[in-house]
Design goal:
Elements lengths: L4 H10 L7 H14 L1 H17 L1 E2 L6 E2 L5 H4 L4 E8 L2 H10 L4 E5 L17 H9 L5 E4 L5 H16 L3 E4 L15 H9 L5
Parallel strand pairs: 3-4, 3-5, 5-6
Antiparallel strand pairs: 1-2
Helix pairs in contact: 1-2
Bound molecules: zinc ion (ZN).
The site of zinc ion has 8 residues, from helix 4.
């Protein structure tokens, strides 16, 4: 505890950042006050503006400053392929690593009944309505390779089937540069089962 109640409140507030405990929060607060007050002011302004103005795209649910995000609004993106991801971070990862030029739909989670996450929370009614528009030809299901991600993929494949849309799933396999003896058994079994013709 410091002698300034405001400083204590700042330290407490910093603890909402992921991976930041009491000690780190203290160090951050002292650093900002001692050495970088202008940086701290900028951070405070950007945080306030971001919390005020960033919402979710009405088409794909990703974070957006405008009602419809730039990817959904772009005329050059292919409207026939729709890639389904769990989070905006997953969307960024695919955007940076692949040459994908289609559009996205962001679930903002995965099926997890225990956490209260069902089809409604994942926006699956919005997705079904999107597919009913008839423009999408392929649904690329890029949910994580976890138990919940697989259950979500299964449900998404059902929705695609009901809409007459082709559903594809990201391949899971041995990492590039990986040696078989160090790959975990689940991944190796999956890769073995999904082997391809040469
Ligand atoms: Zn969008």
């Amino acid at each position: 505890m410091s002698s300034s109640p405001l400083l204590n409140e700042l330290i407490e507030s910093l603890r909402c950042l992921p991976g930041v405990g009491m000690k780190t929060a203290q160090r951050m607060a002292f650093q900002l006050l001692e050495r970088d007050r202008s940086g701290a002011r900028r951070l405070a302004e950007k945080l306030a503006a971001a919390m005020e103005r960033i919402g979710n795209c009405s088409r794909c649910r990703t974070f957006s400053d405008t009602p419809v995000c730039v990817v959904c609004a772009s005329a050059v993106r292919d409207a026939q392929t729709l890639c389904i991801v769990e989070t905006p971070a997953d969307q960024v990862a695919i955007e940076q690593a692949t040459g994908f030029r289609g559009r996205y739909f962001v679930l903002l989670g995965r099926l997890s009944p225990l956490d209260g996450l069902g089809p409604q929370e994942l926006g699956l009614d919005l997705l079904a309505a999107r597919l009913a528009e008839g423009e999408v030809r392929e649904l690329i299901i890029a949910t994580n390779a976890t138990v919940e991600g697989e259950a979500t993929a299964h449900l998404l494949a059902q929705i695609a089937r009901q809409s007459g849309v082709r559903a594809t799933r990201l391949a899971h396999g041995v990492p590039l540069g990986g040696e078989l003896e160090f790959v975990d058994r689940g991944t190796l079994a999956h890769a073995f089962g999904g082997r391809q013709n040469l």
